[in-house]
Amino acid sequence: SSELTQDPAVSVALGQTVTITCQGDSLRSYYAGWYQQKPGQAPVLVIYLKNTRPSGIPDRFSGFNSGNKASLTITGAQAEDEADYYCNSRDNSDNHVVFGGGTKLTVL
Amino acid sequence: EVQLVESGGGLVQPGRSLRLSCTASGFNFGDSAMSWVRQAPGKGLEWVGFIRSKAYGGTTEYAASVKGRFTISRDDSKNTAYLQVNSLKTEDTAVYFCTRDQGTSRPYYFDYWGLGALVTVSS
Question: Is A51 on the interface with B (CB under 8 A)?
Answer without folding.
Answer: no
